[in-house]
Amino acid sequence: MERVTDPAPLPDPAAALRPRLPSPLQEVTEEPFARRGVRLLLKRDDLIHSALPGNKWRKLEPNLRAASAAGERTLLTFGGAWSNHLRATAAAGRLLGFATIGVVRGDELAGAPLNDSLARCAADGMRLHFLDRARYRRKTDPDVLAALHDRFGAFRLIPEGGSNSLAAQGCAELGRELRGVADTAAVACGTGGTLAGLAAGLGPDGQALGIPVLKGGRPHFLQGTVEELQRAAFGGPRGTWRLDDRFHCGGYARRTPELDAFADAFEQRHGLALERIYVAKLLYGLTTLAGEGAFPPGSTVAAVITGAP
After folding, report:
1. Long-range contacts of 178-182 (CB under 8 A, 24+ apart)
2. Which H helix or E strand runs over 240?
3. What pLDDT, in 10s, does the model give residues 121-178?
4. Which in 126, 242, 255, 296 has the greatest CB count within 10 A?
């Protein structure tokens, strides 16, 4: 009889990938802040790891650790054609020995050449599965998940954007790193997991501010999402947080001439290339708020730089 051996254990993500933690702080001078006596710090989470920068590391690491502890060797997750989350999951799989499956929104993409983002996912070993947009909207329904299990077998499900209770717990460390450093800690929001954890980790003396990059109406749909994530992760509300949904610039991946002009000028002043879907909108929003006098004189604002272009 052929001897069957157990697969080699998967490595601990933090030990294997050696992230740069805590991420560094960089103070920059911007006139709307300086005029009102407010310090602006950049929380350089983009420097945590070259392949899993920013909140991608903070959200994925606890999910990877849980999968490793449970002996689960395949990760399945969801994203659009330019998803940073898909790229980070694929990179984590390559580096740590997980098989990865990316369910991509839009079956019309199945026969087309892969864009640069999806090509990177494929190069990192991710199996790409294209789902029509109607079924993608129902991606968490039992029948859709059952069909994915029928096709791919057993897998650990990581939600779109990586935001679940484990992710929120991972992002609480971000808040703890900023506790006592910043009066306001701000982050661009897509699926809400980073904001949920950031607010929890900041403690009672800091406020977390979320700048949604998706157009959501009023009240913004992220309000309920963040509340639910905090209930799942921490058993109830944690910290003080709010959303300001004026800076999405038309919706996800949408840009305006004003946003581009702001980002170009910021890059020239500070030599920092700005990721435009999230980071540029965050800094544009904070600069507008500073000009409106939203931050008290003598206070410190920390902007979380969640990724690079």
Report:
1. 178/43, 178/202, 178/206, 178/302, 179/203, 179/205, 179/206, 180/205, 180/206, 181/25, 181/41, 181/300, 181/302, 182/41, 182/206, 182/300, 182/301, 182/302
2. strand 240-243
3. 999 999 999 999 999 999 999 999 999 999 999 999 999 999 999 999 999 999 999 9
4. 126
